[in-house]
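Sequence in, structure out.
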Amino acid sequence: MGQINIVELWNSMGGIAKGVVVLLFILSAYSISVMVERWLTYRQARKQSRLFTPAVAECLKDGKIDEAIALGEQYNKSHLAKVLVSGLHELQAHSKSKEIPGESIEASKRSLDRATAIAIEDLKRGLGGLATVGSTAPFVGLFGTTIGIINAFQGMKTEETAGIAAVAGGIAEALVTTAFGLFVAVPAVWAFNYFTGKIETFTVEMDNSSSELIDYFLKKRGEQRG
């Protein structure tokens, strides 16, 4: 079974087919860069959140709001820290008062919701590009294949010969673009689905942490009244 000679195949390609391959290579490089950047971002968020969560819980247990905020700013890569710090800032002014006003707790809820929405959008950064690459790369490759096959049959007509031998080279060249398109698209789709699942997990964690923080201040308010 013969091996594919990449150099000969490239030299035999037409201008449009080469352009398609170059475009697919750029899309592949872009998707790989997004995959690596997002993976590192999510890994850092997970790592810092595991350190931040017990530490901030200890600070809140002792009523040390200022220290909890400082801790959140220290772990600024943590998705949980980004959200909780916004809520803590709203209630910082009342941390030593006799009672936390209901208006401040409501403001903290709204601040937590805004921070969660911003954090989710930040976590989604680049995923739209991955989805676009995954959905369009096969069609870009198919376009190159279609043009290649048209050129192959035009060549057969010019040479006035028939049979598979007359078009085999052109069809082989054309199918390379489809194969490359699938090679680019499949990892992008896999990565998009994987990262989307991660974001859903992060969203649940941020919502739970926000609810727990509000419950903490409501409990503290009840203790102050008691």
